[in-house]
Amino acid sequence: MDKAASTGHSDRCRIVVDTCCDFSPEVAANLDVDILGFPFIIDGEERTDDIWSSMSPKEFYDRMRAGARVSTSAVSLGRYIEFFTECAKEGTPTVYLCFTSALSSSYNSACQAADAVRAEYPNFELYVVDNALPCATGELLALEAVRQRSAGLTAKQLVDWANEAKTYVHGYFTLESFDALAAGGRIPPAAAQLTAKLDVKPELSYDLAGSLSLIGVNRGRKKALKSILKSFRENYVPDRTMPIAIMTADAEKDGDWLEAAVRKEEGCADVTIIRSSVGPTIGSHVGPGMVALAFWGKNRADKASLSDRIARRVRGQ
């Protein structure tokens, strides 16, 4: 298709996510959502995260337990240019809900690529949104974006909606150990060893920018799961039209416990709960045993500190 043909507009909006939101490929295909794969390296072999199409979660996490060296890298500028050029030639207005810029340089690369492609195809609508949401929270935003697209939002309207909606998505998770975070340089190895000896299990979340934040620490796994449930109880706003997501890194029994506990909460008996496995991109950094709960709830911006609110104004949010 030539450039002239690519300048036409369509009523359809193309929604793109990446593997950091751990969106099921089957579900994405059914909902007409594109997925960009992040690269990762395991024991020196570079691969593309295909969300368990070529490797099972158990195989991946068992290799991590056995000491496999795992790392990730950002999506390259060249890959973004290649993909966005394909979108431009196809011509459909495109919205990319990108993994949080607070945890990856991919967002900046995507913005640079988008600028380059828009310069080549000036009439092509292409938007890159910093979702500020790691893991399953990004999946919930994308699922609702699909519903809003079906309700008639244009690409530009969808961008405005996503930037407003993302502060209503909550996510809380715990880890089996800090080993993967230590291996990735995110905490000192000595701290990981100390917490292991004390059987300390964290409850983690993220701030408005998408950076990880420590909510609290617990002695033992079950207390950590109960702490996640408490956070859910305090922040969830019942709405049967919006699903809840539970994700695990080869920790299905704990996921089962959390699902059963959520079902007992008010308004949750019949709500849709999505169960999925944390993919290699996120799994490389959290390690086996992660359990996460994501849901729509109260506006997190309302609880932001004064400093965070000032920062949001500086960023124009």
UniProtKB/TrEMBL annotation:
<dbReference type="GO" id="GO:0008289">
    <property type="term" value="F:lipid binding"/>
</dbReference>
<comment type="function">
    <text>May bind long-chain fatty acids, such as palmitate, and may play a role in lipid transport or fatty acid metabolism.</text>
</comment>
<dbReference type="InterPro" id="IPR043168">
    <property type="entry name" value="DegV_C"/>
</dbReference>
<dbReference type="InterPro" id="IPR003797">
    <property type="entry name" value="DegV"/>
</dbReference>
<keyword id="KW-0446">Lipid-binding</keyword>
<dbReference type="Pfam" id="PF02645">
    <property type="entry name" value="DegV"/>
</dbReference>
<protein>
    <submittedName>
        <fullName>DegV family EDD domain-containing protein</fullName>
    </submittedName>
</protein>
<dbReference type="InterPro" id="IPR050270">
    <property type="entry name" value="DegV_domain_contain"/>
</dbReference>
